[in-house]
Design brief:
This protein has helices at 8-11, 26-37, 46-53, 57-69, 85-96, 99-115, 157-165, 168-176, 192-209, 251-274; strands at 73-75, 81-83, 118-125, 128-135, 150-152, 212-213, 222-230, 236-245. The chain is of the alpha+beta class. Helix 3 (46-53) packs across helix 4 (57-69). The longest helix has 24 residues, at 251-274. The radius of gyration is 22 Å and the shape is globular. Residues 24-85 form the HTH iclR-type domain.
Length: 290
């Protein structure tokens, strides 16, 4: 057997710091601007887009001019910009072909009618939930929830429902990389294990009953109850969620509506399993679709 030869890279100190990630290129910057344009509150001022993306104003302005020339952005009043017709058309075509969303729409309409609450369908974008479809009740309830609204995966019942439906190792990875400061910015490091234990207990309870429900929090004005929609392999592709003011969606209401949402998500999952074709992928932290 030949003598083993170590390469220079193998001989380097394994404790050496990892190489810094590559600087964002033009395509990365353009995607950041497109993402910022799609945020709620359009049209967006140049200064707001620069602050949201972390890019210099001249860079954002140059990208906006290029995007506008291609129809992906559109100038608005007082130098602001909004998403352009070409971007809106692409989004509409993609959503129209999504089987899960197509099946979820009638279920959402029925849930809204029967409960008088916001009914929405949300999907995961790595550690964030994005509401693709939102049906508001007639009275509105004074909540700002609309298509495109985003929230941290660990922020409420919808995230709990999705996390509980994921394989345990994937759920653990997402929890391990999540900043818990949204719950309490004054949280000390020695409290982190207790927070993780509380989340793990909530996930176990969500898995047991088949739906997730926000814990009571006097600082929040809303609560969400949700159940996961699964594909033919049993993996979650999204969640059906009910959202309402905290005093209207309490524990008593959750006991009534929870089985209703669970059954609706089960019906959508069954319909999805019976269909063929692809679905919208989940974008992970590395940019790959799963």
């Amino acid at each position: 057997m030949g003598k083993q030869v170590n390469s220079r890279s193998q001989m380097q100190d394994s404790t050496a710091p990892a190489a810094a990630p590559p600087a964002p290129g033009p395509v990365d910057k353009a995607m950041e601007v497109l993402s910022a344009l799609s945020e709620t509150g359009a049209p967006h001022r140049l200064a707001d887009l620069a602050r949201h993306t972390g890019l210099a104003k001249p860079t954002v302005h140059r990208l906006l001019r290029t995007l506008a020339a291609q129809g992906f952005a559109e100038p608005a009043e007082q130098g602001s910009y909004r998403a352009g017709p070409r971007l809106l058309g692409l989004a509409a075509r993609v959503l129209a072909d999504d089987a899960a969303l197509d099946l979820a729409r009638p279920a959402l309409a029925e849930l809204r009618t029967r409960t008088g609450l916001f009914a929405s369908y949300a999907v995961r974008d790595d550690r964030t939930l994005v509401h693709l479809e939102v049906l508001a009740p007639a009275q509105g309830l004074g909540l700002d929830l609309r298509p495109g609204s985003r929230e941290p995966l660990t922020a409420g019942g919808a995230g709990l429902a999705l996390l509980a439906a994921l394989p345990p190792d994937e759920a653990e990875r997402l929890l391990a990389g999540t900043d818990s400061s949204h719950a309490d910015e004054a949280t000390h490091a020695d409290e982190a294990p207790h927070i993780h234990e509380a989340v793990s207990a909530a996930l176990a309870e969500t898995a047991r009953r088949g739906y997730g429900f926000d814990s009571a929090d006097i600082w929040r004005d809303r609560r969400t109850l949700a159940a996961a929609v699964r594909d033919s392999a049993g993996l979650p592709v999204g969640t059906l969620a009910l959202t309402g003011l905290a005093f209207t969606l309490d524990e008593t209401a959750a006991e009534l509506y929870g089985p209703m949402v669970r059954a609706a998500a089960g019906a959508v999952s069954a319909g999805l399993a019976a269909r063929t074709g692809t679905r919208l992928g989940v974008v992970g932290s590395g940019g790959e679709a799963r």
